[in-house]
Amino acid sequence: MIIVPYNKRYRPPIPVLMVRFYCPMTDRFAGPFEAIVDTDADASLIPQAILNEIGAEETAPGWLRGVTGERRPINLYYVDIYLGDSGYSGIRGMADIKGKEIILGRDLLNKLPVFLDGTQQQTVILDDVTVNRLRQRL
Prior knowledge:
Blueprint: E1 2-5, E2 16-23, E3 28-37, E4 45-47, H1 48-54, E5 58-65, E6 71-83, E7 86-96, E8 102-104, H2 106-109, E9 114-117, E10 122-125, H3 128-137
Parallel strand pairs: 3-8, 4-7
Antiparallel strand pairs: 1-10, 2-3, 2-6, 5-6, 6-7, 9-10
């Protein structure tokens, strides 16, 4: 089980996870970094500097439409994202040229048993035993 306290520099506090990035083509890791958990984001957003650090290759151009509706071109990269010892390969991350924040979108979150425990102000990635016990109760 992975438990990470919410980042309280935001108002209200925001759920986060600690992640590392890996590029299999270059065998390079970067991190750990704090990443915002955003269940409304379709895809993960990764600063271009991190993608450059691991030598990730651009796969295709794409478009990003933000909450304001503004549409802007972006570059897409395939990377592996690690949470603790667990790796998730082939995540298509969007490069953020301007920003420094990492945003984890549903491309990764849909692969995880995530519990956003707002009352305790912590993000929890549940272990298999807990997940199976909860699923049996449903």
